[in-house]
Amino acid sequence: TQQQQQRACVDGIELLTGEDLWHTREGGPLRRRLHMSDGPCGVRGMGSTSNPSDCFPCSSAQAATFDPALVERVGTALGEECRRKGVDILLAPMVNIVRHPLSGRNFETFSEDPYLTGVLATAFIKGIQSQGAACCIKHFVCNDCEKCRFSATSDVSERALREVYCLPFEMAIADAKPLTLMTSYNKVNGVFSSENEHLRAILRDEWGFDGLVMSDWGGTNSEAVISTGLVDLEMPGPGHWLTPLRAEEALKAGTASQAAVQKHVSRLVDLAAKLDALQAELPPISRTADYIRSHRDLMFETATSSIVLLKNERDLVPICSEHFSARKRIALIGEPAKFVLPFRGGGGSGSVFTHHVVSPFTAIKERAKGIADVEYEVGCVFHFVPPCPPPDWFIPGNGSTFGFLHSNSANEARITVFC
């Protein structure tokens, strides 16, 4: 009966909401759950200090190399990290456009140039997917500002939409064929991306993308996500809008078809089959001495290649002893120069637990020993909430308290706090 057919279809859609924060469900035609992980510069996996990750220079640094072959090698190394950690889908690359220096996640994407972004994203994806992991290119589309990102609308002309914001996606989909794509939180011209029919038509009908489309985490907003048919998988689990109850209501109302719902299921099952086939051809991988050496060499090569020197008056750099007739002073300005731990990978979706951390201040001070004095100033503080003071600002108390001491020139203030 029609009611039985609807129920069968609804049972299939149970796979189309995640099981938890990082996994799909399993069952029925999907024989195993798929494991996802952030991010663009390191594979966090189920990351912790006991399972650290290799951390490569961020995407904006990779873009500054203008070297697609190098970026593809970085992608290959991250694909190896996916194999080592059992990750099926890496939630990268991010190919949104840098429109403003304060947009919030510029480090996580490549550049302000859509063509350069498209070229490098293509190389990055090819590298990762060569190692049997799927890339999830994100965030489709116009997710170029973090402020009010869950509700903001990016109002954009059709020409700008296609020539600037969609172009990196279009290039990568055509040349690298990413297996998955993530929608964005924001609205585009007043309609949420996850339920935007115009974006669905561009992606599915014009570009012919038949890979899995997932929502950003919590990035679904109404029952229209079912009727539009853009999103195949709602993340994270347990889901809210692509549930059996919602699907049954849409089928009864005629706002979704059984064929469309079945296509969502098929894309997830097809993705798992593709990954199983790719991974079956690859041997197990572990963190051997050669693995460590090759990845560290690649990190160093990428970091040095990303440095763009605009001006070098009087051959001031590189800093070495023959350039100085007398001992000089080097000023490092900016919080991340000294307090690097919170900024590993950039933070947020880019953050990873690393094997080793050294701050620019510590490294430069060591290299400049005997050549120059290295001094540090915090510069502009950019926290919404004041951070915890560093340990070297504290002084011992009387046993039940400890003091907090911060010196500024001749002025000195002491605050006693209880613990």
Topology, pairings included?
Elements (H helix, E strand, L loop, with lengths): L1 H12 L22 E2 L21 H5 L4 H18 L3 E2 L23 H16 L4 E7 L12 E2 L3 H8 L1 H9 L4 E4 L3 E2 L2 E2 L4 H10 L5 E3 L9 H5 L15 H10 L4 H23 L8 H17 L22 E6 L26 H8 L4 E6 L16 E3 L4 E8 L2 E8 L1
Parallel strand pairs: 1-2, 2-3, 3-5, 4-6, 5-8, 9-10
Antiparallel strand pairs: 6-7, 11-12, 12-13
Helix pairs in contact: 1-9, 1-10, 3-4, 3-11, 4-6
Keywords:
single chain, 419 residues, alpha/beta, 5-stranded parallel beta sheet, 3-stranded mixed beta sheet, 13 strands, 34% helix
Structural commentary:
This protein starts with a helix and ends with a strand. It has twelve helices and 13 strands. With 419 residues, the protein is an alpha/beta fold. 34% of the residues lie in helices and 13% in strands. Strand 11 and strand 12 form a beta hairpin.
Describe this structure in a few short sentences.
The chain is an alpha/beta fold and 419 residues long. The chain has 12 helices and 13 strands.
Large-scale geometry: globular
Order of helices and strands: HEHHEHEEHHEEEHEHHHHEHEEEE
Largest sheet: 5 strands, parallel
Q: Whole-Å distance between the termini?
A: 68 Å
Give Rg in angstroms: 25 Å
